[in-house]
Design brief:
The chain has helices at residues 2-7, 12-25, 47-56, 74-80, 93-98, 101-114, 139-143, 174-177, 190-194, 259-266, 281-291, 296-306, and strands spanning 33-40, 61-66, 85-89, 120-125, 130-133, 153-160, 203-208, 214-216, 221-223, 228-230, 250-253. It is built from twelve helices and eleven strands. The radius of gyration is 22 Å and the shape is globular. The chain is 33% helix and 18% strand. Strands 1, 2, 3, 4, 5, 6, 7, 10 and 11 form a nine-stranded mixed beta sheet that branches. A two-stranded antiparallel ribbon has the order 8-9. Helix 4 links the parallel strand 2 (61-66) and strand 3. The chain has 310 residues and is of the alpha/beta class.
């Protein structure tokens, strides 16, 4: 664009002065970056794909709260090499408790790290098993819609993806291995389903970085005197979940992956579940089969790994 303007003048000095005045009269908005905030625990298998995907849709920076156990250094070493990643180490469950678990960590990092960056306009708060999707658009194209000009928080519904019949882990990209979405009204917790709340009604949020008082929660962000909209631009009616959405802007949620990966992640002795306060292995396996088909092969694998009948 500017090259054409330079060649339009015979005198290079006049061209330079004219161009300088134009640039100074239209300063570039420096606070226009989009970032992601996430907590990661033992995610070294998945973190590279997740980072590359979000870079490709226009995310500029990543703030990763690394909750690996103190003797686990794989992900720490990987993230140290990433130019656009700010890594905050909170090793182990006991250290995380000191800052108030997941939500406490989010808010500490937001107030003490992210806001001091001074160039971040929007911040998405998601997990490593979640991928932002905007129907083929970049995240900045999506956020530039004028409907969001007055918006402080945007809610994006989940779209759950099942195990695609896979029992074992494969060293391939997650989005390549699991291509089939669960039904829109898939249940995860039967008690919630009895209340009319389904898994894809839950949301994750993108927040406008500002000086307004706010509290970042696992799914939403509460902003004092703020405006919260759904992914299609309509005003949000619930701070924690929304009605089932057919809008093509959502969060791809690879909640279970294969049965082997689910057991490794959700059924280990050290597993906790802050959201549901459930540590019973049988209950966790029941949740798995709410989302995925129960086959004899899977039932046999559960018995072999965990010694329980399902």
């Amino acid at each position: 664009m500017y090259d054409n303007k330079l060649t339009a003048y015979n005198d290079p000095w006049i061209a330079f002065v004219s161009l300088f005045r134009e640039i100074m009269s239209n300063p570039v908005d420096q606070k226009n970056k989009v970032a992601v905030l996430a907590i990661a625990k033992n995610e070294s298998r998945y973190i590279k794909e997740w980072l590359d995907y979000h870079r490709n849709i226009g995310v500029d920076k990543f703030f990763i709260i690394n909750n690996d156990e103190p003797n686990e250094t794989t992900m720490f070493d990987m993230l140290e090499k990433e130019f656009d990643v700010v890594q905050i180490n909170v090793p182990g469950a006991e250290e995380l408790k000191k800052v108030g678990m997941q939500e406490g960590a989010y808010n500490v990092v937001y107030q003490n790290v992210i806001k001091k960056e001074n160039d971040i306009k929007w911040l998405a708060v998601i997990d490593i098993d979640e991928f932002l999707y905007f129907n083929g658009k970049t995240i900045k194209e999506y956020l530039s819609d004028s409907i969001f000009n007055d918006t402080d928080v945007i809610h994006l519904n989940w779209r759950l993806y099942g195990d695609n019949g896979q029992i074992h882990y494969e060293d391939k990209p997650v989005q390549e291995r699991f291509t089939k979405q669960c039904p829109l009204n898939v249940i995860y917790n039967s008690d919630e389903a009895k209340k009319g709340v389904y898994e894809n009604m839950f949301i994750k949020s993108i927040i406008r970085v500002s000086n307004k008082p706010m509290k970042i929660c696992a799914h939403t962000t509460l902003v004092q005197n703020g405006i919260t909209r759904r992914s299609d631009g309509t005003v949000s009616t619930n701070p924690w979940f929304e009605s089932l959405s057919t809008d093509n802007n959502y969060v791809k949620h690879y909640n279970t992956k294969s049965l082997e990966e689910y057991i490794d992640r959700r059924c280990s002795a050290s597993t906790t579940d802050v959201a549901h306060n459930v540590i019973d292995t049988k209950t966790r396996i029941d949740w798995y089969f709410n989302e995925n088909e129960k086959t004899p092969e899977k039932v046999a694998y559960v018995k072999e790994r965990l010694g329980i009948e399902v």
